[in-house]
């Protein structure tokens, strides 16, 4: 679920004693100094688990190498009512609905994580990340398989949210929602084009034929998005299924620019450069530049496009670089810019719930922009102060380290990482007994006893990052409080890239 989602349910004897004491004190002081000046986190372990999480969100027929074995096949006939195979993909969060808009954004961010930081990943984890990405892109290709149509969601969220049911037992309506030329969806089409284009870059060296397929479909889907403009949730029929969960609150214009920017990067086609040059003003590139997430792409768009301005000296894109700089300045407490809110413990905080989505996306942008600046020997001017790449990376590290346990609660917000982490996450499959331990069917309302239980979830969803603490840094570990206790795929996707950076740079210092 997201900020607007809701639920209806529910780590020597010869030495004189005094001399020995002195030696012990010297060792303790030296050890203390070493601990304080180096990382206290196992970023490699966190990276491994952040990718493993996606296996717990899989829909469809699970592969033989499925590692989270408490999950089983589910929703294998998705799309049959519409005469199309829509099995596969990911459940977005703790429910059993496949929401296409956040799924496409998750795919883009997972691909971007590999593009920017794949070289920092151990080879095994790079392959696991590519596998997680392909599970998403295989599904997205199915959603765009019919000309002039894009399938944007599978599952009736109202009926789904009235149940607390394992995905393997799911018997609620698998309603299919679709955009078309008559019912446009430039937002989800633009994001899907971005996802396929970004993923094509990842697979270029792994499976070139697949990479070509992804890019060809990205071009076609973007044309659909641009030719038939409109927000998908403006249609009454679609709105009934996607709102208030994943409505388009911020308009479709940013997704058009975002899709074009990714197509430019993936294809180097001059027509996409012209598009982002010519349409920046009319499509609101200067609007809402301090937001980035599944619904608002502005800050990410500005960082992405700035790469070409900085490295290729494409001066017509200077306004994107200026907006990216402005966004970075809002993250620097010492700057004169209006600041993003932080908790007393130092966590980026935005009201509305599922706060860790902001933490991970912003940390990712900080690290990515720092790389672009460093490569071109640039800094950011924030009024009376200048901010360099190292400063941006330290800002990101504070956020990631808070998530992993450096916080007032002294707990990790990633399931399975550290000694103390959430035990009662808002997630149906995790909180209900597995099919292997309880083969008998558990009907819709029969799951309520597990939802209301104070017991820890029987199936740890390793790597899941929950919404996190409130503005007071307090986390109650309450399954019912979905704003804090529910994980989402779009929290983890950018986290994969951020953790990969710190795997290679664990002891970052000012």
From TrEMBL:
The residues annotated as the active site are 426, 477, 486
- The superkingdom of the source organism is Eukaryota
Listed under GO biological process in this entry are: cellulose catabolic process; fruit dehiscence; fruit valve development; plant-type cell wall loosening
PROSITE patterns in the record, alphabetically?
A: GH9_2 (PS00592), GH9_3 (PS00698)
- InterPro entries given in the database record: 6-hairpin_glycosidase_sf, 6hp_glycosidase-like_sf, Glyco_hydro_9, Glyco_hydro_9_Asp/Glu_AS, Glyco_hydro_9_His_AS
Q: Which organism is it from?
A: Dioscorea cayennensis subsp. rotundata
Q: Recite the UniProt keywords alphabetically.
A: Carbohydrate metabolism, Cellulose degradation, Glycosidase, Hydrolase, Polysaccharide degradation
Q: What EC number is given for this enzyme? A: 3.2.1.4
Hydrolase listed as a keyword:
yes
Tell me a Gene Ontology molecular-function term this record carries.
Answer: cellulase activity
Main EC class the enzyme belongs to: hydrolase
Q: Which reaction does it catalyse?
A: Endohydrolysis of (1->4)-beta-D-glucosidic linkages in cellulose, lichenin and cereal beta-D-glucans
Q: Which residues form the Glycoside hydrolase family domain?
A: 43-499
Please give one Pfam family short name. Answer: Glyco_hydro_9
Q: What is this protein called?
A: Endoglucanase
Q: Which family does it belong to?
A: Belongs to the glycosyl hydrolase 9 (cellulase E) family.
Membrane spanning stretches: none
């Amino acid at each position: 679920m997201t900020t607007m989602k809701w639920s209806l349910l529910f780590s020597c004897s010869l030495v004189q004693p005094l001399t020995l004491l002195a030696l012990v004190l010297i060792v303790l002081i030296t050890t203390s100094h070493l601990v304080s000046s180096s990382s206290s986190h196992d970023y490699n372990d966190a990276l491994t688990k952040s990718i493993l999480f996606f296996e717990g969100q899989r829909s469809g027929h699970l592969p033989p190498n499925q590692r989270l074995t408490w999950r089983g096949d589910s929703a294998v006939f998705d799309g049959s009512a519409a005469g199309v195979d829509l099995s596969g993909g990911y459940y977005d969060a703790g429910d059993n609905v496949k929401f296409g808009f956040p799924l496409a954004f998750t795919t883009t961010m997972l691909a971007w994580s590999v593009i920017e930081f794949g070289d920092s990943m151990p080879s095994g984890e790079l392959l696991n990340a590519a596998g997680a990405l392909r599970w998403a892109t295989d599904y997205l290709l199915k959603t765009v398989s019919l000309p002039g149509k894009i399938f944007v969601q599978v599952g009736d969220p109202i009926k789904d949210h009235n149940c607390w049911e394992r995905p393997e037992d799911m018997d609620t309506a698998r309603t299919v929602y679709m955009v078309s030329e008559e019912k446009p969806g430039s937002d989800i089409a633009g994001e899907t084009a971005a996802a396929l284009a970004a993923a094509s870059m990842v697979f270029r060296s792994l499976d070139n034929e697949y990479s070509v397929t992804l890019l060809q479909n990205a071009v076609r889907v973007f044309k659909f998005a641009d030719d038939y403009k409109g927000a998908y949730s403006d249609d009454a029929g679609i709105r009934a299924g996607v709102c208030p969960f994943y409505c388009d609150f911020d308009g479709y214009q940013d997704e058009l620019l975002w899709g074009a920017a990714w197509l430019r990067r993936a294809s180097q086609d001059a027509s996409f450069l012209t598009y982002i040059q010519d349409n920046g003003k009319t499509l609101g590139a200067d609007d809402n530049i301090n937001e980035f997430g599944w619904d608002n792409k502005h800050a990410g768009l500005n960082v992405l496009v700035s790469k070409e301005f900085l490295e290729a000296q494409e001066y017509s894109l200077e306004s994107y670089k200026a907006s990216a700089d402005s966004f970075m300045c809002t993250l620097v407490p010492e700057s004169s810019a209006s600041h993003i809110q932080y908790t007393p413990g130092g966590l980026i905080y935005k009201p509305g719930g599922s706060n860790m989505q902001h933490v991970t996306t912003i940390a990712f942008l900080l690290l990515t922009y720092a790389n672009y600046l460093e490569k071109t020997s640039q800094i950011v001017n924030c009024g009376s102060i200048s901010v360099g790449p190292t400063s941006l990376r330290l800002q990101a590290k504070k956020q990631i380290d808070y998530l992993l346990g450096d916080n007032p609660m002294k707990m990790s917000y990633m399931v399975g990482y550290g000694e103390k982490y959430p035990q009662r996450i808002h997630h149906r499959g995790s909180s209900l007994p597995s099919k292997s331990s309880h083969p008998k069917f558990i009907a819709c309302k029969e799951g309520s006893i597990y939802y209301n239980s104070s017991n820890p979830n029987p199936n740890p969803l390793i790597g899941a990052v929950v919404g996190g603490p409130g503005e007071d840094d307090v986390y109650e570990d309450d399954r019912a409080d979905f704003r804090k206790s529910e994980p989402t795929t779009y929290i983890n996707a950018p986290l994969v890239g951020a953790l990969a950076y710190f795997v290679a740079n664990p002891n970052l210092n000012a």
